[in-house]
Every structure is written in structure tokens, then in C-alpha cells.
């Protein structure tokens, strides 16, 4: 019962106008999110994770970058995704991935539609965590020899490089996701 990236989904991204560089990023996020989900399932087979939601959520999270790389790309991506007939759960990931799930107050401050963008589902948090990890691994800002180093140094990197931690509230959210997901992936003793 796995999930694999589908060629028709890649075609949707291309037809929407997403650049090949952004598609490459989206593929990496989907793959990283699915890897994390697999590691969680290995330790906690009782947790029912929707792998298709995780994979497609990772793949489509930056669909809005077909139109803009600005902060509204999540909202714009959800609008595009709606016209493509993507499921609401995937649209939610696209819309809510900005800064790891904004509060209504933060959305107002950033000029986004005022509503709660909190990540309530574990699948959403896995995708957003994978997105941040992939940024750290691929941006070239931090020297990472192996991918696992991004997880091991996650807190230090987010606390010392503003691009990743953004501000105090965003940093706190990302660190909470990191701690939650790392705990789920640790072997029981």
C-alpha cells in the first residue's frame, strides 16, 4: 500500500507553468515526506498515514510558484489546484504550508486572507517538515555532507539562519514539528 509519484501529476505541474527547478524541488519534498512517513510506520505501524496525501501534498505544495514566488504562492497554488480538481486535503497543504501554518493574526500581518492556517493533520506536518529539510539540504547555505545531518542539526540551523527560522513564531512551529516527528521515528526501547 505505497504511493509513487505519477507522471500525470508531473504533467499537471508542467502544464500549470511550474518551472523545472521548482518541480525538482517538489519531487524532492514528496520523496523526503514519504521517506519520513515510512520511518514513522516502521516504528508505529498502528499510525494510519495517508501516503497519497503525503506524496501528492509534497508534490503540489508549491504549485502557486507557477505564478509567483511571493508569500501568496500557497493561496494562489490552492486556487490553481481547485481549477485542476485536486482534492481539498491537498489544497489545504498548499494553502497552509507558508511558514509552517500561520495563525489568523499572522495571516493579517502578512496581507493574506485572514483565517487559521494551522496544520492539524500529521500528514500536513510531515510535508511541511520535509519541505524545510529539503531547503536546508539543497539550498547550499549550510554545508550538509549527508541528508541525515539536516535532521541532526535542524534546531541549530533554524536558530542561526533567519532564512529558515523566519521569526520567533515560525521558528517555534518548525521546532515543534521537528521534535514531534523525530520522536515518532525513534525506535521504542
SSE class = mainly alpha
Domain module count: 1
Order of helices and strands: HHHHHHHHHHH
Q: How many strands, what sense, and barrel or not for the largest sheet? A: none
Number of discrete helical segments: 11
β-strand percent reads under 5%
- Please state the average pLDDT score: 95
> What is the CATH top level name?
Mainly Alpha
- How many strand segments? 0
Instruction: Note the gap between the termini.
Output: 27 Å
Helicity level, as a percent range? 55-70%
Q: Low-confidence spans: pLDDT under 50, at least 5 residues?
A: none
| CATH architectural name | Orthogonal Bundle
Gyration radius, in Å? 16 Å
Oligomer: single chain
Looking at the structure, the CATH topology is Hypothetical protein af1432
Overall 3D form: globular
Written description of the protein model:
This protein has 189 residues and is mainly alpha-helical. The protein has a single domain (7-185), classed as Hypothetical protein af1432 (Orthogonal Bundle). The protein is 66% helix and 0% strand. The protein has eleven helices and no strands. The chain has helices spanning 7-16, 20-43, 51-60, 73-83, 88-96, 104-110, 122-139, 147-152, 154-160, 162-165, 168-185. The mean pLDDT is 95.
